[in-house]
Amino acid sequence: MNNAATENLRKNFLLPADMVEKAESMARELNINLSQMVRAALDEYMKKIEEKKTEQEVIEACQFYYELDKQTAREWKSAEAKI
Predict the structure, then answer these.
(1) Do residues 27 and 33 touch, judged by C-beta distance below 8 A?
(2) Could you tell me the pTM of the whole model?
(3) H-type helices in the chain, by residue range?
(4) pLDDT (0 to 100) of residue 24
(5) Which residues contact 24 (CB under 8 A, 6 or more apart)?
(6) Between 27 and which of 2, 37, 64, 74 could a Cys-Cys bridge form, CB atoms 3.0 to 4.6 Å apart?
(7) The pLDDT of residue 76 is above 70
(8) Average pLDDT over every residue of 57-68
């Protein structure tokens, strides 16, 4: 995720105190610092959003081509009936 060519930027976020305490506790249990944990969590969250977006695009494409196939079948049905 993070390599020598990647520039790190500092950003400040406001979080509820109980969330910070829980995150810091979990980070200690995982033997990582809070920044590493936040980066990993944000990376996973963004991947899930991208996957859902891709899934929705696939659903929409399937619906489009399903309707297109139905229309084409109707057109061919009438053409074949005349033969």
Answers:
(1) yes
(2) 0.65
(3) 17-30, 34-81
(4) 97
(5) 34
(6) 37
(7) yes
(8) 91
